[in-house]
Specification:
It holds the Pfam family HTH_20. This is ArsR family transcriptional regulator. Residues 1-24 are annotated as: Disordered. Residues 13-22 have a biased composition (Basic and acidic residues). The chain is α+β, with helices and mostly antiparallel strands and 125 residues long. The protein has a single domain (3-119), classed as Arc Repressor Mutant, subunit A. Helix content is 33%, strand content 30%. It is built from four helices and seven strands. The protein has helices at 25-35, 38-46, 54-61, 65-77; strands spanning 10-12, 19-22, 52-53, 81-86, 94-99, 101-109, 112-119. A hairpin with a 2-residue loop joins strand 6 and strand 7 (112-119). Helix 2 crosses helix 3 (54-61) and helix 3 crosses helix 4. It starts with 9 loop residues before the first strand and ends in a 6-residue tail after the last strand.
Length: 125
């Protein structure tokens, strides 16, 4: 489940709706877990400029394809990466992955932790 789909723990910034704030510990954990993984960070770097297929990510990051799929699943579940479809004129369509987040900030408050996510303006395919 995309952690950002939970309205109960999400607040949009009044200044910019691309900024979301979460205080639920489960959501925070789900977002931070892949950000503590070097392979996930390398994947995020690889798709910083343009969406790539899992095979392209595996080649770019020098990862086994199975590892790439596993890490991509973590990133998609965390709401950090979107999975879309790359259409081909040959009829063989491929999944591609696009980075959704520019910035993630964790703050310690008197009430616990607060996570702020700054989302990109992305062309949803």
């Amino acid at each position: 489940m995309d952690p950002t789909s939970s309205q109960r723990y999400r607040r949009h910034s009044r200044e910019d709706p691309r900024h979301e704030t979460f205080q639920d510990d489960d959501v925070i954990q789900r977002v931070l877990e892949p950000l503590d993984d070097p392979d996930c960070l390398e994947i995020l770097d690889a798709i910083d400029e343009e969406p790539l297929s899992a095979r392209e990510i595996a080649e770019t990051c020098d990862l086994p394809l199975s590892t790439s799929y596993r890490k991509l699943e973590l990133l998609v579940d965390a709401g950090i990466v979107a999975q879309g479809v790359r259409l081909s004129s040959s009829g063989s369509h491929t999944s591609e992955y696009e980075r959704l987040v520019d910035d993630v900030k964790l703050s310690v408050t008197p009430d616990g932790f607060t996570l702020r996510i700054s989302r990109r303006d992305v062309d949803r395919r």
